[in-house]
Amino acid sequence: MKTDNAIKINDNDNVVVALSNIEKGDNVFGISAAENIDKGHKMALVDINEGENIVKYGYPIGHATKDIKRGEWIHTHNLKTNLKGLLEYEYKPQLNELKKDREATFMGYNRKDGSVGIRNEIWIVNTVGCVNKVSERIAKKANEKYAGRTDGIFTFVHPFGCSQLSDDHINTQKLLAGMVRHPNAAGVLVLSLGCENNNTAEFKKILGDYDEERVKFLIAQDYEDEVEEAVKVIGELVEYAEQFKQEPISASKLIIGLKCGGSDGFSGITANPLVGRISDILVQHNGTTVLSEVPEMFGAETILMNRCQTPELFDKTVHLINDFKEYFMRYNQEVYENPSPGNKKGGISTLEDKSLGCTQKGGTSNVMAVLGYAEKATTPGLNLLKGPGNDIVAITGLMASGCHIILFTTGRGTPVGAPVPTVKISTNSDLYNRKREWIDFNAGALLEGKTMDELSEEFFDYILKVASKEIRTKNEIHDYREISIFKDGVTL
Question: Which among 26, 94, 233, 415 is placed 20 to 30 Å from 484, CA to CA?
Answer without folding.
Answer: 233
